[in-house]
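Re: weekly structure request thread

Next one in the queue (240 aa):
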Amino acid sequence: MKKIWHSGLIVDYIVQVAFYPDYGFGMYVECNGPNTCSQVVRLTEQYITDILSGQDPWLTKETACTYPAPWLPEEDPEAGETRNSTAFQQPPYPNDKPKFDLEDYIGEYSNAGFGEITILLGTDDTKLFLYMGQFMEAILHYEEATDTFYTELIGKLHFLNERIPVQFSKTGKGGSFDLLHMPMRSPYDMNEAFIFSAGPKPYDDKESSELCICGCSTSNYLCFLLYFLSFALVFSYCIA
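Done, posted below.
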């Protein structure tokens, strides 16, 4: 069965579009909700596909309540590894003492592409908190073995089990940290981390402020005209 599909997700919102040219149908499935959303979209699409292609759906009223059984082998409840108990369980967060004083990490770090990250000290002076944008709030837990902090999301995104690694570095000797390293997409590989710098924001200088939305050194009006002409050219070529 030939399938043409594409999906996208952001935080707790996921969308999938699929077309089956051999059968002459397609579908659009979306879901928003914590953790299980991708599984809901996948199972819904498979169920609809079975019906529209004339096959017996493998997902029924009975199996919907037991999924992923009976396809996966039974687990041993005595071992404490039941599906219900381990579906979204996370290991405990690290709780090591950072190598430097917590005050050394405090500050505002900025990146021209991703904006600002603020690191603050909690009211009890024992925890660091990370704030980014309108929604991201997290407690930072330190792991000595990797010299890395890991986020525990709180606030509006508390339901997401996203342990994003965060590292700090200094460009000089002593003093506070002036660089923050954090990957911006799953699976959160530190080799793909973006750098946020303390001090003057990279987009506050005159040269950056004169850049338009498309990155050229001209006005936004001219940029809009360039975008419009490019779109018109591609559109005319497609309908020709």
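The chain has five helices and eleven strands. The radius of gyration is 24 Å.
Next request, please.
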